[in-house]
Amino acid sequence: MARRSLSARSGSRRRPASLLSPALLLDDVVDAFQYRGGRDLTGYEDGTENPEGEDATAAAIVRDARQGLDGSSFAAVQRWVHDLDRFTDLPQ
User: Fold this and answer.
1) What local confidence, expressed as pLDDT, does residue 82 receive?
2) Where are the domains of the chain?
3) Is 46 a catalytic residue?
């Protein structure tokens, strides 16, 4: 996995970070495994129905909920670490 600073990423990817600063500081970015244009190993492509542009911003930032939640955002994250040496040693 390659680690890069946010400044090395494309402008469209910097937009969420710029919207949330100075309240939040991006500490680390990990560019992970990419397979066949972002598909998983079964061929499934996740994220095809994600909103774009202002719709994405509206979907990501909590509004009209209650004090303490308005302006916040939540993320569910998975990080999978694979033992690729062991994987390649498996019988075919």
Assistant:
1) 79
2) 2-89
3) yes
Q: Are 81 and 74 in contact (CB under 8 A)?
A: no
Count of residues for the chain?
92
Instruction: Name the H helices within 1-92.
Output: 11-20, 53-60, 84-89
Tens place of pLDDT for every residue, the chain, 92 residues? 444 444 444 445 567 777 777 777 777 777 776 777 778 777 788 778 889 989 988 888 998 988 889 989 888 777 777 788 888 888 88
Residue 16 near residue 24, CB atoms below 8 Å: no
The tokens describing 75, both together, are 């993320």
Q: What distance in Å separates the CA atoms of residue 14 and residue 12, rounded to the nearest whole number?
A: 5
- Of 46, 64, 85, 89, which one is the catalytic site residue? 46
Residues forming a β-bridge with 39: 45
